[in-house]
Amino acid sequence: MRFMDNHKYLFHQLPLLIIALFFSVAPVFAQGDANVNEGKTLFVGKCQSCHSGDMKSNSTGPALGGVQGRWEDKEKLHEWIRNNTKLIASGYPKAVEVSKISATAMTTFPDLTDPQIDAILSYIDAKASGKLDAPKGDAVAAGGVEASASQNNIMYGVVSFILALVALVLIYVNFNLQRAAREAEHVKTAPSLPVYRNKTYLAIAAIALFIIGGYFTTKGMINVNRQINYQPVQPIFYSHKVHAGINQINCLYCHGNAWESKTAAIPSVNVCMNCHKTIQKYNGPELKDRHGNVVDGTREIQKLYEYAGFDPTNAEGWDPSKAKPIEWIKIHNLPDHVYFNHSQHVRVGNVQCQTCHGDITGMDEVYQFSELSMGWCVNCHRQTKVNFNVDSTSGNKFYSIYEKFHNDIKAGKMDSVTVKDIGGLECQKCHY
Amino acid sequence: MSNKYWQGFGEINDPENFQKNVRDEFREELPFEDFDSKGLLDAKAPRRDFLKYLGFSTAAATLAASCKTKVREAIPYAFKPDNIVPGEAQYYATTFVQDGDVVPVLARVRDGRPILIEGNDKSFVKGCTTPRIQASVLDLYDKYRITHPKQRVGGKLNEVPTFATLDKNITAAIKSSGGQIVLLTSTINSPSALKVIEDFKAAYPAFKHIQYDAVSYTGMLLANEASFGKKAIPAYRFENAKKVVVSLGADFLSSWLSPVEFQQGYALNRKLDEKNPQMSKHYQFESFLSMTGANADERFNHRQSETGLVAAALAAAVGVAGVTAPAVSNAKLKAGIDKVAKDLLNHKGQSLVVCGSNDVNIQLLVNAINAAIGAYGTTIDWSAPLNYRKGIDKDFADLLTEMEGGSVGTLMIYGANPVYTWPEQDRVKKALAKVKLKISFNEKQDEVSELCDYLVPTHHFLESWGDGEATTGSIGFMQPTIAPLFKTRQWQESLLVWAGNTESYADYFKNYWVARLGGESAYLKSLQDGVSFTAPAGLSAGSYSASGLEAAAAAVSAAPKSSKKEIVLYQSNALGAGTHPANPWLQELPDPITKITWDNYAMISVSTADELKIDYKSNDYEYYPQKPVISIKVKGKELKLPIIVVPGMDADTIAIALGYGRTSALGATYVDEYTEDKKVGVDVYPLSSFNGTGVNHYAVDAEVANTGKKYKLAQTQIHNSYEGRIEVLRETTMATFLKDKTQYSDYANKLYETYTGKKNATRDDYVKAGTMYREHAADGIKWGMSIDMNACFGCGACVIACHAENNVPVVGKSEVLRYHDMHWLRIDRYYVSDEKDPNELKGVIFQPMMCQHCDNAPCENVCPVAATNHSNEGLNQMAYNRCIGTRYCANNCPYKVRRFNWLDYTGADSFPNNQDQTVVGKLDPAVFYMNDDLTRMVLNPDVTVRSRGVMEKCSMCIQRLQHAKLDAKKKGEPLSDKHVRLACSSACAADAIVFGNVNDPESAITKEREDNPLRTFYVLEQLHVLPNVNYLAKIRNTDEIIADDDHHGGGHGEESGHGTEKHEAATAEEAHH
Q1: Contact state of A227 with B66 under an 8 Å Cβ cutoff
Q2: ipTM of predicted complex
Q3: Distance between CA atoms of B316 and B337, rounded to whole angstroms?
Q4: Residues of chain A with C-beta less than 8 angstroms from the C-beta of B945
Q5: Which domain range does residue A212 map to?
Q6: What span, in angstroms and rounded, lies between the C-alpha atoms of B1073 and B277?
Q7: Reported pTM
Q8: Would you call B151 helix, strand, or coil by DSSP?
Q9: Which residues of B are less than 8 Å from A347 in CB distance?
Q10: How does pLDDT run across B421-477, given as a tens digit for each residue?
Q11: Is 3.30.420.40 the CATH number for B731-1072?
């Protein structure tokens, strides 16, 4: 048994070791200028919904590569970004010129500070010059970890099987030897029954069957109506990979409701049309559906136009009030007795969309990534730390009312507060 | 001598059997007798059948559970409006306008659907509602509304395809009918609508507008015309009546003029400041026990026909010149009048007399009394008269004569239903037949619409533009909160079109107010706030003249006397005059006094019951729902009604509620399986009479007889009992309270000492002592509620608000009869009387009772599946999907506030046949009505619709608490009172319910408890269940000193009280060791 334990330990650790090895290398890729990183966040959040993320192609707004060169006066460029309407009104010639590039007026960003705008501009420069194109190693490395882990599992299974077989043979040998010894000593033994008629064996088998069968039946029944990996065919082949991945549109641009309300909400047709009034053709990488069939992206955009009642040849004559809603198939279904609020998680809890929805930026067709079961929710609530205001400067002031936890933190009895501590596992936090 | 608190006659007359009876949960025989004599196999459900059922249900459950998951769609807006956030509720200010009532409210709109009405804090009546206002949102989704305009062709009402066709037909018909054109409405106080009517008159010179109220205030209007030269009703400022309020039969807390305003003002003087205990004194003279009378400090009974006599005697007693005191034979009444007069004279300028009579002469006397006690300019204000009721009965009577004469060519009707509400219903029907063209704008097909040629249904108020001028200068604004559900059109717009105006009413309304308010921004602000008002600069006394007073006094003394029974017709708290009688929420709201649902009935006195040989004293009378039916003969009309015996009634008065017995065309809820004509209740309007000036809603010289028949009345009061436990109530008189202020805190302290065995033990010691429960931490938030019993008048607005907010199902009369009512919040009514004479009523106490959210909750530890458990915020939570329906929790709940879904009232089950009446028992049509797809639009999407077989109870609006916390978190601020509002507390006009975070020293609940240490008590505190809901003891403002021989303050039965307490303490201690 001792041997077995060590054995197990070794095999369990192996994949972890391999993972650790790869991750020790990973941070090398992630390093970069903090300024550029901040710029990236801001760009993705505020600009990318209209300006193409590759800085080279025109979208609703023009390509931004080299924008600093095109504007002589840096002050004016800042002014333009903050409030273009005001600058146009002032009659500044460059502003008037730029305003004619696109029919859609640019959004104003009065809250942006000068350092933030500088950060965005330096990200634009870095991106346009190609400095930021990440090495391709990432994906391969991750794949390698997964592959080796599953190989180890197989290896472990095979070894266990062989060992079990050896054990059985040994038991059998032992049994026969004992029997032979007894016969040699002329001790009378009961005639041995074949295994299938021996009641002890039958009982053990029945119990084992009941336990194993029960386990699987229960497990199966629990999963009834759970839809992990559910991937319905949608009325339009809408690729999150193209939008949120390649073009890096912020999730909240379309699903802004997740910031405000319990539902994330699917964007209405007019939100799609904000960009697709100008983006009428798909010229990104080849799209393939789940069966490997090639999908014509431009045709899919056409489908959107059919719902929107939009005629690309007569863009100005579009009447948004004639649009028809798109009947998407709902993927993430929670039972009626569950209350889930997106804004609580996204806005208050700062949970990334990907935590529950998986690598959405890599999905052409979205599938349900998480189990969405109660155990899955509860696990996260056990582990997740809340944005507790440990002192007066940080965290959400709401938690200032939890006096006991503040005292405990001060006294060193606890170092962080989890969702569970503030009642996140209680029935009526989600069921009412 | 001590007081006795009781709910039913059986309890006071035969307590032993009463306790035996209430031990059973249901008052029906259960089919156990099969097992007694015969073997199991011969029983109705033998073993094999049992196995069959078991096998079937297991198989069915498996099938139902493993059905293929259906594909669900998520359909976004095509073009999302900017101001809608799917999943978040918005509040729109609008105004409840009905029958002349004007109450600005907020409509809670969720994803485009109004689902709840709440009070508007910016309004002139701050944040208040009544049961009817709360329930009005359900009328919006009434499938019995008229869905499109109709025209009568050959005796049948056919749909008119377009409004254009309709308008063409109607304008032609108006011309061809000739004669007078009359618009008959209930009181219209909308300035813009009145202008529309003016414009209409300009287009049709032969037009006149008549306002007719079902229950009018003709007497008051005409009396004020004589006394003040104005045919108007002044504003009653109950808040200024700090000392004495006298009501001569005016039910001002329930149905008289504007109860929502009056409750608010009245409550201010009823709440008690413990450091300086003072409250107004409320005297009520009346003939039956009304809700307002139940809240009075002292009541005096008299016949309805003696109201004038009482008014005259009171006038004489306060020294009104020209009125001689008539002889009052009833000694108690006489003493009462003298006492009241003395009190009034002692508190001039701080007193108020109101009178519910519709008799001009009586109202003239009341005006004289008010003038004599200096009420005008202090408690009665002429600076901004009330516009709630303007109808003069004689106007309608004259119109009736004109109609009969054939001079009326066109009659248009909005909001009025004289075929039902006028005393001579048949005469109205015949007169209508003589009018060539009859057009009804009513929302639903009612008695009058059935006789009309055109039905042009108007919008529900939540779909409408509009306004209402409650008092001069105080205007409530209405804006649509939902697009019209049906092909309906506002009646104002119809009038505009027929008058040849092409403007829509929405534009007309806007232009009118932009001009009047001086600009669009002012208009938009008013629309957003829902109100526009200027507080009156000061109170105005008006110029009182005693003209006509002597004649009035003479007329009153000459009024016919009656020696037989008298019938009083009153507006019930829920239905009022009967405008929306088919509203299931209102029908299922128990009456404040009798606690009866779904019916009207005859309230009779104990002496009448004795005369009719009704044995109300035995336990069976209350134990079984079958109540004796009596016949009432008045003026050649005969009615049969079930009775309910009510203490404290005038001996010879029988009171019956108006608004019942309607046509079944009004809705499926109106079908009652128990009556031959399938109507709910009996229509008693025919018993009223028109005396030439006004309609009197009472009748004299009635003959009554016991028919020997029985009829089932669904009464909820006896459904739940405390099983003999006392300390439910704390009630005393002002004099006793002043004498012994610490009686309640003394009681609690003594309990703490006995329980903990420590001297000077505190509540904290008590909480921690002798318990097997773990300590409940409540680190961040601990929710708590406090209910001021001095400010609860029993109206039930909170009950309906709870229905609407929490998707509480309607179960229908047959289920209420089976004790299956589902109200999460009930209001218990207790009579207070002398031990010896239950009819000598001293007062009535209303106690809202809901889950007390005990910290040591007895329900929690008996649940085998932990479906009910404790939250770290001090709430007792209920997980419906975990509940398997053992009902152990309900059994173990000392407050009996848990409700079990016996049947599939909501249609929420996965088994389609669960509502099949042949399989699971009969459900009333009202249940199915509530499950209609249209009606279901009223459901709150944040609250689970419970399926059959689970326990449910008050959750303290957990969805609102969760939302409040999220709101605070999003804003990054600590939780405070401004984030939290419960449905019940926000519905209450009197602010009787205070709710909040007890851990927050700044919260209202903390302050309420700190400010009222002497009156704060917990119901059944000795059980050590530690409720999170506390009450403030009720104080009646009388001089009586309640003898201290009883247990401190409340409760019946000294011995059992102490015994219980000691026993409980001992048990808990044993458990501890």
Answers
A1: no
A2: 0.83
A3: 10
A4: 336
A5: 193-224
A6: 44
A7: 0.83
A8: strand
A9: 970
A10: 999 989 999 999 999 999 999 998 888 888 899 999 999 999 999 999 988 888 999
A11: no
